[in-house]
Amino acid sequence: METIPIDPRGDVCFVLDADDEEKVGFVVSSKVLTLASDVFSAMLSPRFREGDALMLSNSPTPLEISLFDDSPTGMRVLLNVPHHRPTPKRLIFQELIAVATLVDKYNCRHIFQAISTAWIAPLIRGLGLHEELPDFLGITIAFENEDMFAAVFLGLALTTGTKLNTATAVERIEGRALADLVSDEICRKLYTLRGSTSWKI
After folding, report:
1. DSSP readout, 39-103?
2. Same domain flag for 8 and 96
3. Do 140 and 194 fall into the same domain?
4. Which tens digits make up the pLDDT trace of 42-91?
5. CA angle at residue 26 from 20 to 31, to 5 degrees?
6. 98 shares a domain with 1
7. By the number of CB atoms within 10 A of the CB, which of 49, 62, 66, 141 ranks highest?
8. What separation in angstroms does the CA of 143 have from each of 10, 17, 100, 116, 124?
9. Are 161 and 101 within one domain?
10. Are 75 and 23 a contacting pair, CB within 8 Å?
């Protein structure tokens, strides 16, 4: 198993065993992750088996915790950010989906809102957004990136010829009441997005 020391002095080693990838372990700090994610905070608390084992452990080696169905590529980026480790300035489309899926799963979007703009903006620039609508709208929602959501939605409106009151749209976007601009059909798509196969890596 390849072991990647996100925090060389970490007390936890997340072991990922994806079906189509070699097993990999990430050594991390439980204290850092409990601040970054309420999901990790719960997992590493005494209320759960993993947290109870961590509290009782006297071993000098990190406690191994298995995580299933998580992309190692996405997880490496996810863990690097709260540990202030080097993070890619650009991501390809599949990497972006992998990270967005985990950010949503582990509920740590608040620390990704700024950097997600640098990842999303180059990918949506110049693209025919109608074809990528479900994925790009879902990605912006996973990161709760309202500026990028606005860019994708307005791009969609222009691409598909959706009738939109420009003055009202700008006013609402600046006020962040973006949901008012989305049709019921798009809302239904977004509600079902998390279960969509397009999010599976």
Report:
1. HHHHHTSTTSHHHHHHHH---SSPEEEEE-S--HHHHHHHHHTTTT----S---HHHHHHHHHHH
2. no
3. yes
4. 988 887 777 777 776 777 788 888 998 899 999 999 999 999 999 999 99
5. 140
6. no
7. 62
8. 26, 25, 7, 7, 15
9. yes
10. no
Q: Quick one: pLDDT band at residue 173, thresholds 50, 70, 90?
A: very low
pTM (2 d.p.): 0.75
Its domain, for residue 51, covers 1-79
Please check whether residues 187 and 94 belong to one and the same domain: yes
Return the pLDDT at 107: 92
Domain's final residue, options 28, 58, 79: 79
Between 128 and 32, the more confident residue is 32
- Looking at residue 172, its pLDDT comes to 42
- Identify the residue whose tokens are 């239904």: 188
Assign residue 3 the CATH number of its domain.
3.30.710.10
What single-letter amino acid sits at 78?
L
In this structure, the answer to whether residues 58 and 92 fall within a common structural domain is: no
With residue 126 as reference, give the H or E element that holds it.
Answer: none
Integer Cα distance of 86 and 18 in angstroms: 24
